Each structure stands twice: as C-alpha cells, then as structure tokens.
Amino acid sequence: MNLAKVSANGQVTVPVDIRRKLRLKEGDKLLFIERDGEIIINNASATAIVRAQDAFAGADRDFGVANDEDVQGLVDEVRYGAERQS
C-alpha cells in the first residue's frame, strides 16, 4: 500500500512505485475512473493507446493488411490518390 498527502492546492506526489508501474514521466496526465465506488488511476496516454488498439482490432483483415508493405501501400493510395484528385 502506498500513501500520498494532498497539499493545500490539491496536489499529490505520486509514490515512485506507482509512477513506475504506470510508466509515468514528467508531463503525463492521469485518468481517474470511478468504478463500483472506487477510484482507479491510469496513465491517460497508455489508456488512449489501448482504446485505439481495441477500436482498430480486426481492421487489418478488413483492409487486407498483412505486413508493413501493405500499410505503406494504403498510405500511398490515400496520399497520392488525394493529390491526383486536386
């Protein structure tokens, strides 16, 4: 268990063990989630990445992407296709 003290300004120093577990670095933002009466603290950037990965799950199959070359082909198609239409 880790303990932190709230300053008069509402600031809290996150204990070093927790910072390491959340992979927090200076400037990172914390996400506070209330669930079943408890507050869960997450690294906001890491949470956003996981949500984006979840949102795109299966997209590789939908677009026929199997490797880096396929990704580059899609990027080129969007990039150069837009230039041709201009």
From TrEMBL:
Keyword vocabulary terms for this entry: DNA-binding
Gene3D superfamilies in the cross-refs: 2.10.260.10
Transmembrane domains' residue ranges: none
GO molecular function: DNA binding
Keyword DNA-binding included in the entry's annotation: yes
UniProt keyword DNA-binding, yes or no: yes
Database matches in InterPro entries: SpoVT-AbrB_dom (IPR007159), SpoVT-AbrB_sf (IPR037914)
Protein name: AbrB/MazE/SpoVT family DNA-binding domain-containing protein
Source organism per UniProt: Nitratidesulfovibrio oxamicus
